[in-house]
Amino acid sequence: MSKQKTLLLILVLAVAVCYANISGLDVYALDEAKNAEAAREMFESGDYVIPYYNYQLRTDKPPLHYYFMAAGYSIFGVNEFGARFFSSLMGVFTIMITFLFARKHFGEKTGLNAALVLISSIHMALQFHMSVPDPYLVFFLTWAFYSFYEAYKTNNKWQLLSFYLAIGCGVLTKGPVAIGLPGLAALIFLFTQKDFKWKTIWRLQPFGGLLLALLISVPWFYAVHIQTDGAWTQEFFFKHNFSRFSDSMEGHSGSPLLTLAFVFGLGMLAFIPFSVQSFKNAWKERKDSAMMYVLISASVIVVFFAISSTKLPNYTVPSYPLIAILIGAYIAKIDNQWFAKLGNRIGLFFYAILLIGFPVGIYFGLKGDKSLNELTNLAFYFIPLAVVGIFILKQGIARKNIENVLWMNISVWCVTIMLFFHLIFPQVDGQNPVRQTLPEMDTSKTIIAFKRLNPAFVFALKREIPMYNDVETIKQIMGNQPSGYLISRTEFQEELEAIPGLEFQDKARDLFENPTTLVMKWGMD
Fold this sequence. Notes:
two-stranded antiparallel sheet, 525 residues, globular, 65% helix
C-alpha cells in the first residue's frame, strides 16, 4: 500500500470512529452535561470570561473547550452534534499526528500499527465522543510531546514554537498539568541522553517558551480573577488541582494498580497480550532516542496519575497515543517465533478467553442492572468478539499466523466500536432519566430542584433550574407558583412527600451512577 493510500485509510477510519453517531446520543453523562451547558450559557450570554453552570459560577476548568463548543453551537446549533463536533475533531487530529510521528521515526509499519491501536481502542473513541475538556487536553499534550522531540532533534524553530503553543493551549484547557507533564518528560529525557547542558537548554529556550505559553493563558486567568474577586482562582487551583492530587475527591480513590487497570485493561484492552512486552521492548531499544523519549513520556503520565490521590479513567488518556507507538513498534517486529515463549502464549490465551466471555459478561451485567435488564439482547452484538477469540485461541494453539491474529483482532474491535455507537449505546442511552421523565412533564411550568440535580436536565431544558436545600423554601415557592415540578433524588423522597400538595410524578435510575432521579409535582390536575 502506498503512503498516500495508508494516510487516507487512517484518516477515513479515524473520522468513522471519532464521529460515530455523535448526534444520536444524549448529552447525559454528569461531566459532559455540565460542560456542554456551561458552554451553552457562555454562548448565550456572550460573556467569554466567566464560566457558569446553571447560572452559577463554575470553577472546574479553564475555558478553551467552552470556546470550541460555542463555535460548534454557532455553526451547527445548540445540540449534541454542536457540543461534540470539535471533541471528535481533536480525536482525528490526535490519531493523524501519532501516525505521522511514528511513521517518521519508526517506519511505515509502526506508524500504521500505532494509528490502528488508537482507532481500535473503545475507551479512546468514547473520550472523543464527549463534550468535556479531555479530548482537547489529549490533543494538545500529544502535539506538545511530539513537537518537543522534533525540536530537540532538528533544531526546527517552528517545532519549538509548536511545543510551547501546545502547552499554552493545554493550560487554557485544563491548567498547570499541561506544563508539568511535557516539562517533566523533557527534563528526564535530557538527563538520560546526558544532554542536560546549558547549550541545549539555551537552544530549547524554556524561559522564553514558558513565557509564550503563559501569554496564551494568563490574560484569561487574570481577567477571571479580577471579575470574580479571586473566587474562581482559589477554587480552581486549590480545590480542582492541588486537592485532587493530594486528596481523593468525590470518592475517586484507589491503589496505584487502579491506574494501570485503567490504562491497560480499559484503554489498551484490544492489545492486552502485547502491552507489557511493548514496554520491555522499548527498554531494550532505549539507545534509540525516539524510543526512549516515547517510553519516558508515556511512563511520566502513568506514574503521575498512579501516585495522584484522585483516580479517574479519563486522567491517563493522554498516555494512549504514546503507548500506541510502543505497541505499534513492538508488533511491527514480531513473527510466528513470538509463540515460542510460554509467557506470550499464556497472555494470548487469557485474552482469547476474555473475548469469548465478552457476550456472556455483557448479558449478565445488563441482567443485573434493574434499569437495563430489558436490554440483555444487546449482548449478541458482542458475539464477533467471541468469534475472534476462538480464532485467536486456535491460532495460538497452532502457533502460526500471528499477523492474521493481529489483523482479525483490530478489525473486529473496529466493527465492535461502530456497533457500540450506532446500535448498542443508543438503546442504553434511551434509558437515562432525562429521556424517561422529561416527555411526561409540561416544561412550560416552573421547574426547581431540591439538594441534588442531574445536570443533563439543565442542558436538555436550556434554562436555569433553581436549586434549593430546605423544605421551607420549597413550600414558599409552591405558594407563589400555582403548579410546577421538583427534581431531586429518591434519597430525599420521604422528606419531600411530607410537604402538603407535593406528589410523586416519576423516577428513573441515573445510568452508570448509584442515585435515582425523582420527579415530584404540585398543582397538576
